[in-house]
Prior knowledge:
It is built from 17 helices and 22 strands.
Amino acid sequence: MNFSNAVIYQIYPKSFQDSNQDGIGDIPGIISRLDYLAQLGIDYLWLTPIYPSPQKDNGYDISNYYEIDPVYGTMEDFKALVFLAGKLGIKIIMDMVFNHTSTEHAWFQRALSGDKKYQDYYIFRPGSNGSEPNNWQSKFGGSAWEFVPQLGLYYLHLFDKTQADLNWDNLEMRRELYKIIHYWIGLGVKGFRFDVINLISKPQSFADDPSGDGHRFYTDGPHIHQYLKEMHQQTFGRYPDILTVGEMSSTSLRHALQYSDPRQGELSMLFHFHHLRTDYKNDQKWELEPLRFMELKELFAKWQTAMENNGSWDSLFWCNHDQPRIVSRFGSDSTLYREKSAKMLATAIQLMRGTPYIYQGEEIGMTNAYFTQIAQYRDVESLNFYSLSVQKGMDPYQALKVLQARSRDNARTPMQWDASRFAGFSTVQPWIETNPNYQAINVEASQKNSNSILRYYQKLIVLRKQSSAITNGGYRMLCCDHPEVYAYRRYDEHEEIVVFCNFTAKTANVDFPMHAGFSFLLSNDIPKPAAPLLELSPYEAIVFYKKRVAL
Ligand code: TEU
Ligand code: CA
C-alpha cells in the first residue's frame, strides 16, 4: 500500500477536548472536533494510548489492551469515533505499547503472585552481589531494575518502575500481543504506531555497560528484525491497508532502511529523533545548546537520500507529545516572528519525501508553556529530572529553566480552541494548566484570519495531494553549505519543486542558478518571481514550481 499522499494528525486525547467537564480530554471531545480535522485535510488520526491505565506515564503504562479507559469514554464512544471519522474519510491509528505493560496489568500481577508462566512474560533476574543485575539506567532516571522482595528478584523497566519490560523472547507472550492487533483491526482501526518498538529485543546476557546506560545493547537489539517480520506476517501484513509506524528514537540509518523497506515486510515507516537532538549538548536532552543548523541540514539530506535510494520510507515531523513546541525551539515565538517562523518550519518539513505528521496545536503555532513552578508540571520524566537534579545540587531555578525548554509538558497543555476561559478545552480547571497565551493563539482566531498558520497548513496539505513530485518524487538538498538557509528540490518526470527556508531572524541571500522557467508557488511572505539571486526575509519560506516539458 502506498501512503505517500497521506497526512497524519496526532492527538493527545488527555489535552484535546473535554466533553464532560472533568478537566480531562476524552473521545466524545474528539468526535465533536472531527469537522475541524476534516477541514484541515488530514487522512489519519493517531491517538496516543486510551486503554485502561494507572496513568503514571499518561497511558503509556497499559493495564488492559482490550478496553477503553473510562476517563476517555466507553467502547461505544470509540466505535462511534471510528465510524464518524470514517464518514469524513479519516482513519484511526492506535498507539501500541508492546515494550512494556503497566505493573497493574493482570500478567504482571500473576507474575508477582509467583506464577512462573507469567514471570517469563517479563524480565525477572536475580541480583548481582546483593544489588541490581546490571548497571542499566531507566530513561526516566535511576536504575532500570526494581526489586520485588516477595520474589527475591528484580524486574527490568527501561522507563518508569510501573512500566515493566516484556520478554519478547517468549513466543507465547508474543502471540498474546498479536491477538491484540487483530482485535483492534476487527474494530476498524487502520493503523498502528508502535511505541519504542526497536527496544524490544534484549540480549540474554544482560551484561554491565561500563561506559554507558545499557542502551547500546538493546537499541535495535539482536532479534529485532525477526520479531518485526513475525509480527507483520502474523497480524497487519495479512490485511491490504494497514499503516504502521515504529517509534525508534535513536535507531541507526542502517537499521532504519531495513525497518521501512517494503521488500522486508516489517513496517510502513518509522520515527527517528536524530534531527531533534541537534540542540542537545553532548547528546543530553537536559543540556541546552542552540540549534546546530548545519548538522540538522546534513541529517535531513543524509536520511532523505539514503531512504530514497533504498526505496524506504520516512516520517516527517517536528512535534509530538514528547517534544517541546517547534516554534519555540527552532523558530521564534516572539510576537514579531511566531507566525512567520511557524509557517517556515512547516514548509521545511512537510515538502520533503515521506509522510508528514502534525501534532495537535502545531497547526496554530502553539508555543512552549514556560511554567515557572515545579507544581505546574505533571510529566513523570520532568518531575524525576527536577528532583534528581536538585538532589545532586543543581540550582532549582536552573532546573526550571531547563524544563521550560525541554519538558514534555510543553506539548501537553490543553489545545487552544478559543479565547474563553480554559481556551474552550473545558469549562473547569484542566488536568494541566492552559498556556496563558490562549487568548491570542487559538483555533477560532486562526479560522477568521485568512493569513493564519492554520490556513497555511491547509495549503501545504492540498499542495502535497496535488503534486506527484512532493508525494513520490526524488529529493536533493540545495545550497548545501549555506549557514542560514535549508533548501531542496523535489522532482519527477512531470514537475519540479524548489523550496528555500531561512532559519534565521536576518535577511539571507541565495543563488538560484536554475531559476529559468520556475514560477512562484507558495510563501509565508510577499510573493516574488524566481530570480538568479534571491533575497529571503527573516524566516521566509518560498517555494517555486516548474512543469517539465516532455521532449
Ligand atoms: O517515548 C520514548 C522515547 O524514546 C522518548 O521520546 C521518551 O519519551 C523521552 O522523552 C526521553 O527523554 C515513548 C512515548 O512516546 C512516551 O510518551 C513514553 O513515555 C515512552 O515511550 C514510554 O512508553
Ligand atoms: Ca472528560
